[in-house]
């Protein structure tokens, strides 16, 4: 299934932040990484994609259907969303949180059944935290919570997975874990759209890159072509070097004007 965005425009009102002329697509096995500085419109764009904000003009389609006209339950069966984080004040178990991903597949007032629980447990196993199933969501670490929210999205069994900075505030090990899971989900046929403040993540798993600045796309295309020093420097407004190792690995490093020169 392909998520396609054509000339999307959105505004919070006079003087508010806006998006103008956003176009891109994400199909099965794509990982579209949306990059941009703070306030560039990344999260606003995601909220438009999931129906949380009404667009002013343009089109959002799923397999050719107008996504803005789909009933919420139908949309939730096609698209899953992973926010940056969430809090639970009711003491839900980790398994309970993941089971919530099954709600789009249930009738009104229907409770999850054994098959839904099997799917939720399999999702926990997929992200590697099945051992936390009976723990309270409020007592696990930030990285474990992010994996739990990802498991909830996996249990939803969508065709398109949308994530807002899935590796934000995570240590290196959990960042690598999240990226590995996302790459695996894409390989399995999902379309993945994610925002990130880490260009390195786009270098590692991105197939397409969308660069946003001030609500506009300044560059888009295959990650291998777009992610160079000129693009990243222009996007973030500070010198950035892309460092490549002899074995083909690449990493980005900001270079403040006061930094000393030397060998990286």
Automatic annotation (TrEMBL):
Protein name, as recorded: Iron complex transport system ATP-binding protein
Role of this protein: Part of the ABC transporter complex HmuTUV involved in hemin import. Responsible for energy coupling to the transport system.
Family: Belongs to the ABC transporter superfamily.
Family annotation (Gene3D superfamilies): P-loop containing nucleotide triphosphate hydrolases
Keywords linked to the UniProt accession: ATP-binding, Nucleotide-binding, Translocase, Transport
Gene Ontology molecular function terms on file: ATP binding; ATP hydrolysis activity
Pfam families from the UniProt entry: ABC_tran (PF00005)
Record organism: Amaricoccus macauensis
Residue intervals of the ABC transporter domain: 3-239
Lineage, highest ranks first: Bacteria, Pseudomonadati, Pseudomonadota, Alphaproteobacteria, Rhodobacterales
